[in-house]
Amino acid sequence: MTTRLIAPPVGMAVSLSAARTAARLNGSDFDAELEIDILAITEDAEFEMQRAIITRSYLATLDRFEQRIRLAPSPLQSVTSIRYLDSDGVERTVPKEDYFVNSVATPGWVEPAIGKQWPAALLRTGAVNVEFISGYGANDGSTPAPIKKYLLAKIKEAYAPAGTATSPHLVRLLDPFKVYS
Could you tell me which InterPro entries the record lists for this protein (predicted)? Predict the structure, then answer.
């Protein structure tokens, strides 16, 4: 299975004004650079946790249906569609009532609904596509406080005067959010 981003987040995990304060910057002269730093530090944190902070869409591609399809990164919000190639090579969509989405589990997953089974798919690479949405929410207001604290502390470190010590312990703020499966 491969998973790729199809719609990036439209917001940031921390606001530009909060990052500006953390970096101790006055005015907006460095906003473009600061925004790049916010995005880079956020991406690093997401990799560390195996989570998506800001809502975005993904496409998971499989060669065949699995009994339970794991959908990462967490937290899974919803499944948009499940499409597959039938035995004739025609693309079909699995009806929503034919599958169950577990968005509470970490990572989330999808499986056939009770009494249902996955349809027969063409034996071909990439025959099954699951489009799904992950993330905590659309903007910095949905970022959990410990994650926000980590991001702002990393911004503060990035803009600290040369020679300022960095904390190797900041990453511990992300521990409760790490996905280990």
Answer: Phage_CHP
